[in-house]
């Protein structure tokens, strides 16, 4: 008998929207939940009804089991779908749902608990004859996981070595160690990060397999003894051990290898009595050997690539299995067509070490076209806050072959319009166009090998011609605004009763400043000088915040939007933010450090490692700030004495907030 009629989605953002859409397609009533920060979010508007959970911090809203269950009870929901992240892999939540007579759209609590701990999961997989990475898990009685024991066992295993948090995921609490002398610091750092992120500092060690690929297998099981796999996904392009681009099938997996990996993955879930959707993650060595890493007991972020090549709706499968139905298909009935690639669009700045970014979305226009799918949960005018994950959307392309999918995804990224918040779009385009990715011969070291900091810093750097176009566009937009305010014909823009004088402007692109001289020579024509180079161009409006630029007979389209003195633009698919600093006071220009340590973004203080009167050296970590699931260490800007500490653990601070002051000599802070 059918039990599920009304589903509460205990999540937010794009995954909440994704789940809600399948529920609506199946005729199920839906309930959304939201924090104060998400009152006007798309997932709230999409659901049949929505219930407020609490303040923005996740622990007071989306992570509160008590509040989520109260919302489900108040709404009359039959089932709760946790999405991914938040409570999706929390065994206490799964048990609480069952005890409150809600259908939990996920695996049994016992499976979540077992596989949620990398140490216990690995021991169980070893017992099930699933190949595992050699390492140290304190498997025998009396063995220790304390720092000293890990250092000793690390020396035995050899280097390079991975230090990994037993709990959680997302690359947190993970360190690659290449030298024996760096092991103890890596253990202490990983343990601290894991404790803050997951409430557990338990660690394991694993041999680092050089040149390996991260390949995972999608699995499904029901309550009737059926279990299948739905092929593999290659997730090797990662930054900070977090996935950026995923594809299916993997370029490195042959049909024979797929059959072997799939059989082992199914063997693994049968060994633990699993039910629902899950993912068995493997490291695939260059010689074709593969090793179990961990299991994710939920739907994965990258599940759309599997959906596109199988033609299946995995959320629908989750709901049917949770309702007691058998799997919709047997293994022989599952087929694969074409190739799919997904890119995670994140609010982050690759040039600044992938630092999370916040702000208001001034423009959001997702791409469309054959084979293109965009999963997102944002809208124009929405604030991107520091309280949740930096991923805002997923762009997925499907085609009959890998190259078609790659080209379609690259074109979709060029078409995407997202202004107001810096994203990793240019970085993704760089990866898709890189020869190592195009060839399919890449591994988990791709980002480190092919996009070092100097490369990241130069991505999207404007040419002199681009700088001239943007300077003229800024000038032209100012002139049009003046015409509108003054009520005169826009055709008079740039008109002068005498010889038109060049207008100097100074623009800052977030990393550097350049100066230009703009001289209008006709209503839509300009001469722009950048240094010793002169560029003649014409600008023709194509509608609201769109223009066509012509330079030396070559025409290019540009999309743009102004926000005060900042110009956001997309030229040839590269999004840039330029700030007019022409009238900035000289005192605000770059200058030597004044000793003030400022927060680089909005975030929560999770550690204060200093106090007033402490003597510090330049580079010492004084404060650790967390935003969008990323920790940032704030270091002393100079040698000296700490003369002020303006934060405490748990405090939420805005970007540019002075968290501490270091003075060359002990004296009262200015």
From TrEMBL:
Biotin carboxylation domain boundaries: 3-452
Pfam families (alphabetical): Biotin_carb_C, Biotin_carb_N, Biotin_lipoyl, CPSase_L_D2
UniProt keywords, alphabetically: ATP-binding, Biotin, Ligase, Nucleotide-binding
Required cofactor names: biotin
Superkingdom: Bacteria
Occurrences of domain Lipoyl-binding (ranges): 587-663
Signal peptide positions on this chain: none
Annotated ATP-grasp domain residues: 122-323
GO molecular function: ATP binding; ligase activity; metal ion binding
NCBIfam families: PRK08591.1
Protein's name in the database: Acetyl-CoA carboxylase biotin carboxylase subunit
Species of provenance: Corallococcus aberystwythensis
Organism lineage: Bacteria, Pseudomonadati, Myxococcota, Myxococcia, Myxococcales
